[in-house]
Amino acid sequence: MEQLIVNGIITGSIIVLGAIGLTLTYGILRFANFAHGDLMTLGAYAALTLAGMNLPFGVVFVIAMAFTAAAGILLDTVLYRPLRKRGSIVLLISSIGAALLLRNLILIIWGPRMRYYSPDIQIAYMLPFGIRIKPDEILIIGIAAALIVLVHLFLKKTRIGKAMRATADNAELAQIAGINTDRVVMWTWGIGCALAAAAGILLGMEVQLRPQMGWDILLPLFAAAILGGIGRPYGAMAGGIIIGLSQEISTAFISTAYKPAVSFAVLILVLLIRPSGIFGKEGRWS
Amino acid sequence: MVIGGLESYLIVFLVMSGIFAILTLGLNLQWGLTGLFNIGIAGFFAVGAYTSAILTTVQSPDHLGGYGMPFITGILGAGALSGMIAYLIGIPTLRLKGDYLAIATIGIAETIRLVFTNESWLSNGTRGIAGIPGPLREALPHDYYNLFYLLITAAFAGLAFLFIERALHSPWGRVLRTIREDEMMAAATGKDVFHYKMQSLVAGAVIMGVAGGLYAHFIGFISPDVFKPMQFTFLIWVMLIVGGAGNNTGAVLGAVVVWGLWTGTEFLIDALELSTDYQTKAGALRIIAISIALELILLLRPEGILGETKKTSD
C-alpha cells in the first residue's frame, strides 16, 4: 500500500501540472480544450529532439516549455480566437480537430514507435516500508513541486497572475475593473502550455513517449480539473493528487487496465455530489 | 442478374454509408436538434455491436453467449442497452453545462472500450467475436446477401430518417430546438428541460446502438479495435457538420460524402503499396486532412453544405 501511495504521488504530480493548464484555459477562456493532452505530447517530443542535440537537461526543459507555449498561442491565434464569439461548444469541436491534427503531425514527424529519453535502465532505491523509487521518479516529484511553487508565486505576486485569477473568477467583473483580457488570454495559453510541456516530459520520463500519450491522460486531467473546481489552479493541484492516488490505489483491488476508468468514476461521483468541485463556488457552473 | 466486381464494391460501400447515415442521424437528433454534445458515439456503437453479437451467436467457449436469438431481437437489444447506458450518463450530466456531457461521454466510451478489451469472459478480449450470423447469410450467395443487407440497412436508415423528420416538425422537436437555442427560455415556458434532453439523448443513443448491431451482423466479426473511440466519433461529427447540423438530408449526404472520401483515400493508400511505416504516416496524413477540412468548415461555412432550414414563417 505504501508503494501504491508513492506511485500515486508520482502520477499525481504529472496530472497536477497538466490539470493546472487545463483548468486555467477552461476557467478563463470558458471552454474545455480537448487539445491540451496533445500539447503535452508535443512538449515531450520537442524535448526528445532537443535531448538528441546533447543539450543539458535544464535547457531542454525550458526550451521545450517555451516552444509549446508558443505553439499554444499560435493555435489560439489562428483557430480559437476567430471562433470565440461562436460559443464554447464550437470551440470544443474545433479543439478535438486540433487534437487529432497535433497528434497525427507528431506521428508523422517522430514516427509511431515508442521512444525513450534514455535507454538506460534505472536501479530503484530501496526506502523504508519496502518502498522502491527510481531516481527519475524523485526528479519528477521534485520538478513538479518546484513548478507548483513557481505557479503559486506567479499567481499571487505578479500583476498578470492576479489578473488571471480575477478573470477566471469573473470575466465580466475583471474587464470592468480594467483588466486587459487579450493579454490575460495570451498569458493563460503561455503558462498553461508551458506546464503542459513539463507534464509531457515528466510523463515521458515515467513511462515512454507515444503519439497517443497525451490523449490517453486527458480524462484524468479533466477529472482533476473538475474535482478541484474549474478555473481554480489550487483546486487542480489537490484534484490531481487525489486522482493520481485513486488511480494507483485502485490497482490493489481491480486490474491496472482500468486506471482511466477510475478517474472517470471519480468524475461521475463529483458531478453527482458537487459539480462545482471541492473548491468551486456552489451553483456557478450549473 | 450477375453482380460484377464494381457493383459488389458499390453495394458494400452503400451498406457502410447507410450504417454511418444512421449514426449521423442519431447525432443529428442529439446535437443538431437539441444541442447535446455527445463525443462517445463509438461507445454506444460498440455496445450495440457487442450486444447484438452476444445475443445472436451460437454457444462459444470464448465469450458470453449461446443465446442464438434471431437477428431482429439482437438489433432491438442493441438499441435498448445503448439507450440504457445513455440514460445512466444523462443523470449526472444533463443538469449541468454542455461540456460536462462531452467529458462524461468520452469517459464512458473509453470505459466501454476497456471493458470489451479486458473482460475476456464477456467479449473474448482483443481477439473479438467472430461468426456473428446475419439474416439469410447461409441461404444467399455472398453478393446477393450483401444486396439483401443493403435493403435491411436502407429500411433502418429510412425509419431513423422518418422518425427524426417527424420529430423536427412536431411540438416535441420545437421544444428540443428551444432548449438548444435558449435553455432558460424553454424552462420559463414551463418545459421540463432535463426530461426533454434525456429523451433526446436516449433516443439518439438507441439509434446509434442499432447502427452498431447492423454493423456487427454485416461484417460478422467485431473486436475492440474497430471502435477506436476518437477517430470513429470524430468521423461521425465531421459527417454531420459537413452535411449541415439540424438537417436530416444533410446528415445523410454528409455521411455518404465523407465516407466516400474516407474509404476512397484508404483505397488509394492501399493501392500505393507503401511500406508499413509509410502506410501509418499516410493514414495520419488522412486524419490531418480531415481535421483541417473540419476547421475550415467551422471557420468559413459553419452551417455545412445544406444547413438547417428555417421552420418559422417569415
Explain this structure.
The complex is a heterodimer of chains A (about 290) and B (about 325). Chain A has about 290 residues and is an all-alpha fold. Chain A has one domain. Helices cover about 75% and strands about 0% of the residues of chain A. Chain A is built from 12 helices and 2 strands; from the N terminus they run H-H-H-H-E-E-H-H-H-H-H-H-H-H. The longest helix of chain A has 28 residues, at about 1-30. The relative contact order of chain A is 0.20. Chain B has about 325 residues and is mostly helical. Chain B has helices at about 5-35, 40-55, 70-95, 100-120, 120-125, 140-170, 170-180, 185-190, 195-220, 230-245, 250-270, 275-300. In chain B, helix 1 (about 5-35) packs antiparallel against helix 9 and helix 10 (about 230-245) packs parallel to helix 12 (about 275-300). The longest helix of chain B has 29 residues, at about 5-35. The interface of A and B includes residues 107 and 226 of A.
List keywords for this structure.
heterodimer, A: two-stranded antiparallel ribbon, 12 helices, 2% strand, B: 314 residues, mainly alpha
Report the major sheet of chain A. 2 strands, antiparallel
How many strands in all of chain B?
0
Task: Provide the structure class of chain A.
Answer: mainly alpha
Rg of chain A, please? 18 Å
**Which descriptor suits the 3D outline of chain B?**
globular
**Largest interface, counted with CB-CB under 8 A?**
A-B, 43 and 43 residues
Outline the low-pLDDT stretches of chain B.
none
Compute the separation of the termini of chain A in Å. 37 Å
- Give the percentage of residues in beta strands of chain A: under 5%
* Quaternary structure: heterodimer
Summed up, the domain count of chain A is 1
- Strand fraction band of chain B? under 5%
Mean pLDDT over the full residue set of chain A: 89
Q: Report the total helices of chain B.
A: 12
Number of strands of chain A: 2
Number of domains of chain B: 1
